[in-house]
Target: Cell envelope-related transcriptional attenuator domain-containing protein
Amino acid sequence: MFGRSPEAGTATASGKGDGARQIRRPVHDPRWAQALVTIGILLMLASGVALAGGKFLLARYTGGVRQAHLLGGAAASLLVSSGPMQGRIQGPINILLAGIDERSDDPGGGARADSIIIAHIPASRDRAFLVSIPRDSRVEIPAFPKTGYSGGTDKINASFAFGFGFSEAGNRADGFELLALTIKQLAGVSFNAGAIVNFDGLRRVVDTVGGVELCVDEETTSVHIGQDANGGTTIPYRQSPPDNQPVPIPGVRPQVYHVGCQHFAGWQALDYVRQRELIPDGDYGRQRHQQQLIAALVKRIASTGVLTDPLGADRMMRALGNAVTFDGNGVSLADWTFTLRGIAPNAITMIRSNAGQYSAQTIDGQEFEILTDTSRQMLTALRDDTLDAFIAAHPDWVISTPGGA
Model:
């Protein structure tokens, strides 16, 4: 739908526009997936607290999460301790989280990664960093023989599509693997675990905990939800070619989120954090709002009685499980849960690429986001487990959470 560049409809197998066979990308553009990737880190952080529910809850939780081999050649070698600390993962941890644009009612529509986050947990295990990579970042994508993709230069979110495949029966695991391989080539980072996140699961999690408190930091008008003269819900804007700008539909009043702290139900939270077209800072504003949601949701889970109520905790953990497909890289989900259980909700630091400032270039008719030299330094710091030092030198790259969410 809104905000897609004209070139986003197809991509060539070479990535260089040389007339090679084309892969279908979705003609729809549900921005719901943009906000959902952050639930992957919630799955890891909140679950450790919820283990107070005992062995039954842990079994329900770990048994309900979909698991698959996602990382392939981008998997890191894990050091797992033995003896009294058997199963504990050693050293710093990097988890790749991808929110994908995929519809169950359109199996032939393909898929792409609309939201990409690296969750970095230092060797100290006392905090977590969430580093977002803009989906339009111009990168080199390696060849991927599984789908016949020969490699090329494209937006980073196209790597998922090229890995997903050229047939209607595309493979999400292969899409994730090529995305992970692309980041490994870009930053020298291998991954200890990975997760694919979907929309419906996150909305259910928000509703399961009774909604969240979010502090809106800029007036945000929805291009997706509005009311007509009869009070019915409908789309308030249409897409106008050739630049795909949103144009108001007469007689429809859009949903508007005003500045200030307020309580959001699941549908409101997801609608708010998917917006980019009518806010001044576009994708970077949406990225900031998404990461503010993760902080608010972690805080809500930690503070609500859902964790001390076995039935409520069971509902929440099942909702979390339904939101994620997880690759633990050969380590059980229970061991992952115990490994990350010491990270408190207020120990999550959210970092924006390019300091949240656009660095766009138009190349061969396509607009790309160019990662600055400092962003590449940030990725090097992530690889080397020195993000603390990077943040000390660049404090303005940290995303704040208005109202202490």
